[in-house]
DNA sequence: CATGAATGAGTGTTCATTCAT
DNA sequence: GATGAATGAACACTCATTCAT
């Protein structure tokens, strides 16, 4: 009941997953009915259970995808130590761009992971912790003002990312790079140490 | 159907509303059952319909409360013109404190209005627009850097407020004034004009 | 709980009864709600139970009224024996007119008694039996063709009366006398003995 | 939602429809419960909704059946012109027999269509209109007395048919042909032109 | 690999009726 | 004589899930 092998089966499974993602994102968990998922995927209800254990299970699978890909992303953008002071700006810009791009890339998944999932809170908390750790390391290296509570700053970043993603990117307005630049402009003067 | 007069009736209605707010906030709309709302309120199911048209109706009433109180709050915190340059900081600080306090004051309602409601998006959009208008006026008066896109800035504020509220305040950690101060410290240097 | 005496009480009871008759006639038993009856009567629900035992009870009271008044009517129109052959026509005409008038007089009650009541069938059967008895006596007296099955004829009269009442009279079209005349014209040639 | 294809499905649907017809006819719309319909059909409640949209929908389907079959019947019994005067009697007899037979054929449906349905009034009105049109054509051809108001006559036929159907046929007493003959004997002398 | 048919369990809602005042 | 408030009992309907094929 976990992974069906044949080519046609994988195709069906993928269609179901895509339909589920779209509907969960648009309607939320409860307003999304198995009947409408399978309809969109061109299958019947029992087929659904050929590929997934339950409605909860698909939802969890989607949330899981989102969460683990997000984790990888942030992990891989860990600061290499030995950063030059002049590069801090670019570094933060890069991280923001990467996150904006990630959120824009699969909007259904993003919407599910950041809004629809009951775990949305803990996902954001986890993300915040990762970002905070990055920031703390940089702060210790003297790149950032020592008076800042990096816990708070990380939360501000998350909130900002989240809001801008939904206000602009999911509406198809603006683009990741431009938004990231504006955020950097807004935040950095408050973060860099006084000259 | 929403105007029962006697004192006892108003009491019952209030109990139902409070129970509904608590459960909606904690469990969401769908996992909240009328049966458990009335149980918490010490009544039976039919009584619920003495005071509310439907499950949707109570939910909407709560969201409506939140939305309109939020509206009033922001409207009443419009900037009086004739602000001294030195006061800008304090002004923004004040607005942030007010909003933090408002969000903390009735956590159930806040959770419903900002997360559980399908209209959460439009509520935040509305709030963003109001804040943006405030900011724009101040920008025109020269209090803020002219290169800033106040639309984006407003969204950053909303995201930040929202995130901090849920990360700290609803956990009972931190306090509105302290958080507001940190946000001001973080944002202001990026917002005030260069000397 | 049966008969409240005071003037005001009688007034209230009458208003309830009238409202009930109107609504039962128009909407039927099930679509008529106690709440709407009392609303129309300008009272509250508990007041209803001051005057009637139950919803069924009011309905029965109305049906009972109809049934007993109809009974009296037919009973009182029994043929005096010693009728002259030439008067038969006028006699039947008179009975029809009387019944048409009765049905038109209180349309709500008529609609309830002939259509809405579960006993409608037995009411019509009873009426048919009474009419049949009248007809039989006249047949025995030689006023009517001896080949006619007066049981059937009576049913034809009932059906005709009922249909014409609802097609014309309750629409405010036509009048009892004229309709009665037409029925007599249609039926009598088939009923009177061949010359 | 009304087109399930397999043989087993059609069987179930038919059983539900039959059970519904029987219970609606016997108990009326409101006293008939979905639970008892499905019980009689040997199914469970959700299965009902596999075949019908709602309780109202089955009822309407039954009424619709009745109405359209009745329409066809009357339409197909339109008078061929070129009728011989001597055949008028037989013609009317034939129509009456046909209608009596139709009403007797599916007693549940008849009871629903003529009594239980809120549209019963309009169904009878429609039937009356169709019969009146037939009669009018014959009247124009000189087969019937020109003084008769065929609108009224048609209503008399309907009432008579209805009453006799329920008084005799649904009790299993009498038979269509015999009743039709008696009606013809009663009405025709009043309808045929004076010699 | 897929489907037609069926179901268990649950939930919102309605309404006649009553209690206490 | 009347009412505000409350309730018991029921019922239609939904939906995720599962057999049997």
From TrEMBL, chains A, B, C, D:
Stored SUPFAM superfamilies: Homeodomain-like, Tetracyclin repressor-like, C-terminal domain
Keyword Transcription regulation: yes
Keyword presence, Transcription: yes
InterPro entries: Homeodomain-like_sf, HTH-type_TetR-like_transc_reg, HTH_TetR, Tet_transcr_reg_TetR-rel_C_sf
Entry keyword set: DNA-binding, Transcription, Transcription regulation
PROSITE patterns cross-referenced by the UniProt entry: HTH_TETR_2 (PS50977)
UniProt DNA-binding region: 33-52
Residues of the HTH tetR-type domain: 10-70
Pfam families: TetR_N
UniProt-recorded name of the protein: TetR/AcrR family transcriptional regulator
The species this protein was found in: Paenibacillus oleatilyticus
């Amino acid at each position: 009941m976990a992974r069906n092998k044949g080519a046609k089966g994988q195709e069906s499974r993928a269609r179901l997953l895509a339909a589920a993602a779209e509907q969960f994102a648009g309607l939320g968990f409860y307003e999304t009915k198995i009947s409408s998922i399978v309809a969109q995927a061109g299958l019947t209800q029992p087929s659904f259970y050929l590929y997934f254990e339950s409605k909860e299970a698909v939802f969890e699978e989607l949330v899981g995808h989102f969460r683990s890909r997000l984790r990888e992303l942030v992990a891989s953008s860990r600061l290499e130590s030995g950063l030059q002071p002049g590069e801090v700006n670019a570094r933060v810009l890069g991280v923001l761009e990467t996150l904006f791009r990630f959120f824009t890339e699969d909007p259904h998944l993003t919407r599910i992971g950041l809004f629809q999932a009951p775990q949305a809170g803990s996902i954001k908390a986890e993300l915040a912790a990762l970002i905070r750790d990055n920031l703390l390391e940089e702060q210790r290296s003297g790149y950032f003002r020592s008076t800042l509570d990096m816990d708070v700053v990380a939360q501000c970043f998350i909130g900002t990312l989240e809001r801008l993603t939904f206000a602009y990117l999911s509406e198809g307005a603006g683009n990741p790079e431009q938004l990231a630049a504006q955020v950097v402009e807004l935040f950095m003067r408050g973060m860099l140490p006084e000259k």
